[in-house]
């Protein structure tokens, strides 16, 4: 009996997961928008524009973390250049936002201000179509996807792995940053894009727009989680994890690892691009510093803190680190880099499975009767037994590789 | 599954292959593109294969033919080129010169590892390589003969037939009680068996087994020999092994490799009396 795909997607996320998603949806689609856009400012439950933008920004980071986890946690490929795909999505949408400014810029020209400043007379060819919203959505997906596909094709075909791959991704994002810093590149140089006014003609600073962008970010995150859960519990996900653990064996049983890695890699980049496109209108600026290597490394830190190979861990990690960051940068701005470095070392040494791993260990201690390794369950109905065999949290066993090993794996 | 032949065909349909087939058409019988042609009763044919690594000749004009359904043992001292030979057959290493054919028509030197696996050659490594984080059941599921392209695997699901097939192989390799155990927690001998089971799931025509009983207990070794003997006929097997008792139990023809080429070939008893073989094994 074949089960329809929708049902299988439904089953791939456990019941508790759906309940959590429903609560999350209620909060992000109803509670936060109402608290921000409907309640008057004097109301004690009113959420300020600052808070909503901050939370919306973190939601976008969470999407990036999930994308990173899919490629790092489940396929064992550590990218230190995911910030590039995020920035590319952001720039693609930023171009549209620049065009939406229209003649309201300082120079009251049809061209974006920075082009007038450079004395350009017309839009460069690659800005064609940037005034169309649908065309922009296409670019948001296609640009990071294409860059990732071409880069991945060459890297995976040459069987570049482990730290070598990580270093090349780092170089890639650094090179892109230098390119975008140049005024001649046509993306606003080191100032990037800012001073956005409208999306689809509606003011970008209105509470309604802010609430909508926030709700869309939440929707994207939920969609990523459901899609991610389906992927990692499907046979595709098992092949991917098998490539991570014993690539040559995968080849000799007839799978082509190149296609598997490339698919996951490109999908991961596209998700980052979408997150970037939602991020830019919420923070109101995009510039080449988003492509700096440090940003990409931070993405890896989020995932490591939350717990590699668990989608919910990636979400938690991005949330915890970014909330800590916004508190630190307000209270002790000069200490943030030290704290981040300390956090990464501490997690690598003491929490190889991140926050989720810690939670599991604590729970195992309170209920010592539960064995870490599932005993043979022949008597269980097959459907149920199968579900337990899914690498739900992939390989979080006690004999698990330490976090640092992900770089080599 | 008809889709599988499609994959195999797609895998083979390169321009080079087409030329080969048209060349063969003149010999008189109809050859289906991509299908294994066993009309001459030979499943594997190596001719004058030479492989050098930095000047060292791992294989030196090696020629070897394996018949359909045969169980062949390959023995030889360390560095004789046994593993390199397996690498050439499975596409991991390209020979500097020489020809390697699977059946009459499939040129192994032109295919990639996954294409060769689809064509029907399964390989067991010297060190058991299984997916340690996956359960025994999942290991077999992944190895199962199926359409292994991304777009199919994304939507693949286990049907009842598949479960039955996996259960059957689990019984055959005596792991039916361990289906849900992560493979990394199995004993060494069980891992060896699991890898053999993965080969069986692929339903290969030719099995290459590199030291399959290394690290097994005597009892396990004996049962492995029984399993292989029962497989011969339906499959063709090439076994590389040092354990002479095991080779004797298998009872097939023996090929002795030395310094990258064939030194002697025949029954174990014959080979053991060969003066050159004795010299190689006992030193000069």
From TrEMBL, chain A:
GO cellular-component term (any): plasma membrane
InterPro entries: ABC_transp_permease, ABC_transptr_urea_perm_UrtC, LivM-like
Residues covered by region (Disordered): 369-409
Subcellular location: Cell membrane
GO-annotated molecular function: branched-chain amino acid transmembrane transporter activity
Domain of life: Bacteria
Membrane topology: Multi-pass membrane protein
Keyword set, alphabetical order: Cell membrane, Membrane, Transmembrane, Transmembrane helix
One Pfam family per UniProt: BPD_transp_2
Annotated coiled-coil segments of the chain: none
Record-annotated membrane-spanning stretches: 47-67, 74-98, 133-156, 163-181, 211-232, 258-279, 299-323, 335-352
Name used for this protein in its record: Amino acid/amide ABC transporter membrane protein 2, HAAT family
Organism of this sequence: Aromatoleum tolulyticum
Organism taxonomic ancestry: Bacteria, Pseudomonadati, Pseudomonadota, Betaproteobacteria, Rhodocyclales
TrEMBL record, chain B:
Chain ranges of the ABC transporter domain: 44-284
GO cellular component terms, semicolon-separated: plasma membrane
UniProt-recorded Gene Ontology molecular function terms: ATP binding; ATP hydrolysis activity
Assigned keywords, A-Z: ATP-binding, Nucleotide-binding, Transport
Record SUPFAM superfamilies: P-loop containing nucleoside triphosphate hydrolases
Compositional bias ranges of the Basic and acidic residues kind: 1-19
One matching Pfam family: ABC_tran
Gene3D superfamilies on file: P-loop containing nucleotide triphosphate hydrolases
Keyword field contains Transport: yes
Top-level taxon of origin: Bacteria
Ranges where the record places region Disordered: 1-26
Name of the protein: Urea transport system ATP-binding protein
Organism whose genome encodes this protein: Aromatoleum tolulyticum
């Amino acid at each position: 009996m074949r089960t329809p795909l929708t049902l299988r997607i439904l089953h791939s996320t456990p019941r508790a997961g759906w309940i959590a998603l429903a609560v999350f949806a209620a909060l992000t689609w109803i509670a936060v928008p109402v608290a921000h856009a409907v309640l008057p400012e004097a109301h004690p439950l009113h959420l300020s524009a600052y808070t909503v933008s901050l939370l919306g920004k973190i939601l976008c980071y969470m999407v990036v973390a999930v994308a990173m986890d899919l490629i790092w946690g489940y396929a064992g490929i550590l990218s230190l250049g995911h910030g590039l795909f995020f920035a590319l999505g952001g720039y693609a949408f930023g171009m549209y936002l620049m065009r939406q400014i229209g003649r309201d810029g300082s120079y009251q020209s049809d061209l974006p201000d920075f082009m007038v400043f450079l004395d350009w007379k017309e839009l460069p060819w690659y800005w064609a179509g940037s005034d169309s919203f649908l065309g922009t959505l296409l670019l948001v997906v296609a640009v990071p996807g294409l860059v990732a596909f071409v880069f991945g094709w060459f890297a995976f075909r040459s069987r570049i792995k482990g730290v070598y791959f990580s270093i090349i991704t780092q170089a890639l994002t650094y090179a892109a940053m230098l390119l975008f810093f140049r005024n001649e590149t046509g993306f606003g140089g080191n100032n990037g894009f800012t001073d956005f006014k409208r999306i689809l003609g509606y003011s970008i600073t209105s509470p309604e727009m802010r609430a909508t962008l926030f709700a869309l970010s939440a929707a994207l995150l939920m969609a990523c989680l459901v899609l991610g859960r389906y992927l990692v519990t499907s046979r595709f996900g098992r092949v991917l994890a098998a490539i991570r653990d014993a690539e040559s064996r995968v080849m000799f049983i007839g799978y082509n690892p190149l296609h598997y890695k490339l698919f996951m890699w490109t999908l991961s980049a596209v998700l980052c691009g979408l997150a970037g496109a939602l991020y830019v209108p919420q923070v109101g600026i995009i510039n080449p510093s988003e492509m700096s290597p440090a940003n990409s490394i931070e993405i890896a830190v989020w995932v490591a803190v939350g717990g590699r190979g668990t989608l919910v861990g990636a979400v938690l990690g991005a949330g915890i680190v970014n909330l800590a960051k916004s508190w630190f940068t307000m209270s002790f701005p000069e200490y943030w880099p030290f704290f981040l470095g300390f956090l990464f070392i501490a997690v690598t040494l003491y929490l190889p499975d991140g926050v989720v791993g810690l939670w599991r260990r604590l729970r195992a201690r309170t209920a010592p009767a539960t064995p870490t390794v599932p005993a043979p369950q022949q008597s269980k109905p097959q459907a149920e037994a199968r579900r337990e065999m899914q690498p739900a949290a992939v390989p979080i066993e006690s004999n698990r590789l330490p976090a640092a090993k992900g770089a080599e794996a | 599954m008809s889709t599988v032949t499609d994959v195999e065909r797609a895998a083979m349909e390169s321009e080079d292959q087409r030329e080969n087939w048209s060349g063969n058409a003149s010999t008189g019988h109809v050859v289906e593109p991509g299908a294994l042609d066993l009309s001459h009763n030979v499943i594997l044919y190596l001719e004058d294969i030479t492989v050098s690594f930095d000047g060292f000749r791992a294989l030196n004009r090696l020629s070897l033919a394996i018949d359909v359904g045969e169980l062949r043992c390959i023995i030889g001292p360390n560095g004789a080129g046994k593993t390199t030979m397996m690498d050439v057959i499975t596409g991991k290493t390209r020979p500097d010169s020489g020809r390697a054919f699977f059946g009459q028509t499939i040129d192994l030197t032109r295919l990639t590892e996954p294409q060769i696996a689809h064509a029907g050659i399964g390989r067991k490594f010297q060190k058991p390589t299984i997916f340690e984080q996956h359960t025994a059941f999942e290991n077999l599921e992944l190895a199962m003969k199926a359409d292994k392209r991304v777009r199919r695997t994304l939507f693949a699901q286990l049907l009842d037939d598949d479960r039955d097939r996996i259960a059957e192989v689990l019984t055959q390799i005596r792991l039916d009680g361990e289906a849900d155990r992560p493979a990394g927690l199995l004993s060494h001998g069980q891992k060896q068996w699991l890898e053999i089971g993965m080969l069986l799931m692929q339903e290969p025509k030719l099995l290459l087994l590199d030291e399959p009983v290394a690290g097994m207990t005597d009892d396990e070794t004996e049962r492995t020999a029984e399993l292989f003997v029962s497989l011969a006929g339906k499959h063709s097997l090439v076994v590389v092994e040092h354990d002479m008792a095991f080779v004797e139990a298998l009872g097939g023809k023996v090929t002795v490799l030395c310094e990258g080429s064939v030194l002697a070939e025949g029954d174990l008893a014959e080979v053991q009396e060969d003066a050159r073989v004795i010299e190689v094994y006992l030193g000069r």
